[in-house]
Amino acid sequence: MPVFFRTTGTVGGPAFLLRAGSPSVAPVRMPVVVAVVERPDGLVLIDTGWSRRTCAFPADDPGLVAAALLGLSVKPEDALASQLLSLGYAPGDVRHVVATHLHADHVGGVVDFAGATVHVAERELQASTRGILGGYRGEPLPSERAQIHAVAGPPALGFAASEDLFGDGSVLLLDARGHTAGSVAVAVKLQAGWLVHAGDAAMFVEDFRADDGAPASAYARAMSWDLGAQRRSWAAMREAESTHGARIVVSHDPALFATLPTTRETAWPAAWDRRRGKR
Prior knowledge:
Layout lengths: L2 E12 H4 L8 E13 L2 E5 L5 H5 L2 H12 L9 H7 L7 E5 L5 H4 L9 E5 H6 L18 E4 L12 E3 L6 E5 L8 E6 L4 E4 L7 H5 L8 H6 L3 H16 L4 E3 L4 H4 L13 H5 L4
Parallel strand pairs: 3-4, 4-5, 5-6, 10-11
Antiparallel strand pairs: 1-2, 2-3, 7-8, 8-9, 9-10
């Protein structure tokens, strides 16, 4: 069950808005990080990034104004479905999509994986009904493919609640609310510890590693459903990293993305691979 990462283009904005304490107006280019997890029965995606339509026609979807506000930079080949083809997979190999939350840059590409079950936290699905007022797009999650999760199980990896996605301990949903009302972090059991893909629970690694009293960025203050809850998620991420040795991945940190494996050959081996005698 190797795990690697891709980005579906980039988004951007000025540093003073995105990075706590920065006075700079210089633009920051940020990835849109998706995790690809290979399981014996097919692929699991943690988020999907933008759709094929958005990557090919951003002026139509999300539209010129939204694309400009997001600093969106995409090409047709940036869509994850297209990238998977170039890596030797087919979109039909994707069996599951796990949404860290339902903002369009994280789940816009769900439409490109018609055979996949989409896993989402119940609180997040409820929050998404607020539409654009909550930062969500108007297009609903395909209900016939959605599997809803309460994420109300025992604490895990420093997070207050969890849910065992497949019942075998290999993938956990972790309550990481704050950025949105139902944000989750997704933990994958590796041969060496855990990966925790935390989505937008933090924008940059420096955000969650900062002390509780450190100022939040203007973006975090503006875009948090509950900044206090988000700070608690930051504390959980610190504990997962320091106490449990987890590798924390957030969706938009360019320096972090530069260190991640992006192909199957360089992927992090997961616990399943040891059981099958793989590397």
